[in-house]
Design a protein that fits this description.
Number of helices: 7
Number of domains: 2
Number of strands: 8
Distance between the termini: 31 Å
CATH class of the largest domain: Mainly Alpha
Radius of gyration: 20 Å
Strand order of the largest sheet: 1-2-3-4-5-6-7-8
Structural class: alpha+beta
């Protein structure tokens, strides 16, 4: 359904942005948001795939001429920084470890490789978020290169997983979720506006005893179904929202969980 697609695109905006004035930088347009959503989707699938592969299989490769699992992980980290730096002036501060040979980095512990890969994806999140619109063919080409690289390497890793007898993340069934009944008086405490990123807010409203969420970036409101206190889910897609409280029990923010990523949003009113 089209309206569900729009709200999920809007809900994939990165939240970790440097302090700035909305007058200095406008939020990305719809085309850029599509690229952000795509990168988020395959980036999270890659991280999930690497997490699912046992550490003792990181030296696995189907044939001698192919890359090992560990080699793919470190290669993706380098590629993410190299490609996403081309989007603007955001640069990755390299260390001595970054200059080590690929064959050495490929043998780093599983946790190290995943942590560094995730950091490179967060770097790309911020780099993409700084782009307001695709103004040049070169910028469009860079976005396509980023998306293609992530998708191709996920496809590569998915084949490895099948050969190892593992199920790729994209082939797993969605987690079954059960909605519970929450009194309207309790739901009313979540109503408010939450800032997810500069220029992008999530508006949580209530009507007919049900909670709804809508992004200022566009799209229709979708219902939030409670599965426990402070934890809600969207039935139209694999997305969840958990609300946070202060020491006095007041709702102060929320966290959007989608594509394996967690994005906080502060309550502003």
């Amino acid at each position: 359904m089209r309206h569900c697609h729009l709200i999920i695109v809007a809900l994939t905006l990165p939240a970790a942005l440097p302090a700035q004035s909305p007058a200095v930088r406008n939020p990305p347009d719809g085309v850029v948001l599509e690229f952000v959503r795509f990168a988020d989707l395959f980036g999270s699938r890659l991280v999930s795939a690497f997490e699912a592969i046992p550490a003792d299989k990181y030296d696995y490769r189907p044939t001698p001429v192919q890359q090992t699992v560990g080699f793919i992980a470190q290669h993706l980290e380098d590629a993410n920084y190299a490609l996403c730096e081309r989007l603007g002036d955001l640069k990755h501060m390299r260390t001595a470890k970054d200059s080590l040979a690929d064959t050495i980095k490929a043998r780093w512990p599983k946790d190290t490789l995943i942590r560094r890969l995730d950091a490179s994806l967060r770097f790309c999140d911020e780099a993409m978020e700084r782009v307001e619109r695709l103004q040049t063919p070169g910028l469009a080409s860079t976005f396509l290169a980023i998306e293609t690289d992530l998708a191709e390497h996920y496809s590569q890793l998915a084949v490895y997983m099948r050969l190892l007898g593992l199920v790729p993340p994209s082939a797993l069934p969605p987690k079954a979720r059960t909605a519970i009944t929450v009194p309207a008086s309790e739901l009313a405490t979540y109503v408010g506006v939450y800032r997810l990123a500069v220029g992008t807010e999530l508006d949580v409203t209530m009507r007919d005893g049900a909670l709804f969420i809508r992004s200022s970036a566009g799209g229709s409101a979708v219902r939030l179904w409670a599965e426990s206190r402070d934890a809600f889910f969207v039935s139209e897609a694999e997305a969840q929202v958990s609300f946070s409280r202060d020491t006095n029990g007041a709702v102060t923010g929320l966290v959007l969980h989608q594509y394996g990523r967690a994005r906080p949003a502060q309550r502003i009113r």
